[in-house]
């Protein structure tokens, strides 16, 4: 069973953290599903990942090469045809405890400036912990990412 890492954004947007997390996942040989709730936002993230520093091979779900994508951007309800080892969940998209069982890691990224997003992350934390998933909380409040206990 994989663990869940909650990333509490307080100083930077998800667009800044995602390339770091994706890069680390690819370095260990994991395929990644980046799941959101809004197709328009996922399209913007697709553009951002292509234009950022470094090369992060990826694709938007729905193409003919989905199974071959190292990183596949999906929206809730779309299957990740790339057999991911890591799920990165944005914008309060639902992550089921059973999903964590099949993954190496699940990253739940939420905006601490958004009260609804923070409440949703708390609910997900409770649901995952209650189902026996090991979870970690990471914060950038100090100016760098730190694991909080």
Brief rundown of the structure:
Helix content is 32%, strand content 26%.
Explained architecture:
The protein is of the alpha/beta class and about 150 residues long. It has helices at about 15-25, 40-50, 95-100, 115-130; strands at about 5-10, 30-35, 60, 70-75, 85-90, 105-110, 135-140, 145-149. It has an eight-stranded mixed sheet with strand order 3-4-2-5-6-1-7-8, sandwiched between helices. The two termini are about 20 Å apart.
Secondary structure blueprint with pairings:
Layout: E1 3-9, H1 14-27, E2 32-36, H2 39-51, E3 59-60, E4 71-75, E5 86-89, H3 97-101, E6 105-111, H4 115-130, E7 135-139, E8 146-148
Helices, by number, come to: 4
What would you call the structural class? alpha/beta
State the shape: globular
User: What's the helix-strand series?
Assistant: EHEHEEEHEHEE
Radius of gyration: 14 Å
The largest sheet has its strands arranged as 3-4-2-5-6-1-7-8
How far apart are the first and last residues' alpha carbons, in Å? 21 Å
> What number is the mean pLDDT?
92
Strand content: 25-35%
Q: Note poorly predicted spans.
A: none
Helicity, as a percent range: 25-40%
């Amino acid at each position: 069973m994989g663990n869940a890492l909650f990333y509490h954004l307080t100083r930077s947007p998800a667009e800044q953290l995602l390339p770091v997390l994706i890069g680390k996942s690819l370095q260990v040989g994991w395929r990644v599903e980046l799941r959101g709730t809004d197709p328009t936002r996922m399209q913007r993230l697709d553009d951002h990942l292509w234009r950022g520093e470094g090369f992060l091979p990826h694709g938007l779900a729905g193409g003919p090469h989905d199974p071959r994508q190292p990183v596949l951007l999906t929206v809730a309800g779309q299957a990740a045809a790339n057999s991911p080892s890591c799920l990165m969940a944005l914008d309060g998209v639902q992550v089921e405890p059973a999903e964590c069982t099949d993954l190496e890691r699940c990253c739940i990224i939420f905006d601490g400036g958004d009260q609804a997003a923070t409440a949703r992350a708390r609910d997900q934390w409770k649901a995952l912990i209650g189902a026996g998933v090991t979870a970690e909380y990471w914060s950038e409040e100090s100016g760098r990412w730190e694991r909080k206990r």
